[in-house]
Design a protein that fits this description.
This protein is mostly helical and 96 residues long. It has helices at residues 8-34, 42-57, 60-86.
Amino acid sequence: MNAATTTRRNAYLSCLVAGLALVACAVLLCAAVVARAPPAIAPLLALACVGCPVTLAWSLPPAIAVVRRHRLAERAARRLRRDLDRLPEIPHPRGF
């Protein structure tokens, strides 16, 4: 995912999917331990439960950059509006 072409919605969605995958993999790993999965399944399960979130984590830095850039733009717009509201209202010099 490219930070320049990523929309804010896609960035939030990418973060949400990565978080949900992490939770799902943790639950799956815990369920396998509690249910005493066969020893032959344990390495594959561990590989999947570690590899899936790590793979999804590759898309997080650009997504986080988009979210930060958007927040900075909103903050700058609020600051500009606040500064414009502080300016005094004066009549136009030519009476317009």
